[in-house]
Amino acid sequence: MSDLLYVTADFSHHHKIRTFMQQANWHSSCSGKSGLILLVEDHDLYREVVRAALGRYLPHFEMVEADCVAAALPVLQAHKIDVMVVDMTLPDGSAIDLVEQSRYFIEQGVKVIVLSSHSSADMLPVLSRSDVHGFVSKEQGLKTLAEAITAVCRADAPALVEREPALTQAL
Description:
The protein is α/β, with parallel strands linked by helices. The protein has helices spanning 44-57, 69-78, 95-101, 103-107, 124-127, 142-153, 165-170, and strands at 2-10, 16-24, 35-40, 61-66, 83-87, 89-90, 93-94, 111-116, 134-137. A hairpin with a 2-residue loop joins strand 6 (89-90) and strand 7. The longest helix has 14 residues, at 44-57. The model is unreliable at 1-32 and 155-171 (pLDDT under 50).
C-alpha cells in the first residue's frame, strides 16, 4: 500500500487548491520505489484507469495526481517529480501551458510526456518542442505509456516513444 496524493482545483473558488491523501494498492513486489510520476488528467475515470494500469506496469514508481494546470504547479513545488504525464487539454489550459509554467522544474530534470486523444501527426507542433520528451496517443494504450515513462527515465537514453508513420515522415 502506498500513499497517493491527489490535488484538484475548485474553479468556483478561484482555483482554491484542495489536497487529500488516500490509499492506493500498487500490487508491488518491489521493496523500494524508484521514481515519482505526476499525472495531470481532468477526467476522473480515465485518471483512475491510468493509475491502476501504471501501478501494474510500473510498480517501482509512485504517483501523485492533479486535475488541471493550477493544481499541478504546487505538486511540482512540493515533490521531486521525475516524470509529468499531462493530458493535452485541461480545464484551465493545455499541456503546453503547464510545460511553460514548469520550465524551472523541467530544467532541473523533470521529463514531460503529453497524453492526448489526438494523433501524433496532429501534435507535431507540440512534439517538436525540446521540453516535451514524449507523446502517447490515448489510442496506443497504457502499456505504451508505461514504456514511454520507462524510456524517458532511463539514464542518458533518448525517449523511445513509438511514433505513428505520419509523424516519422513529417520529421
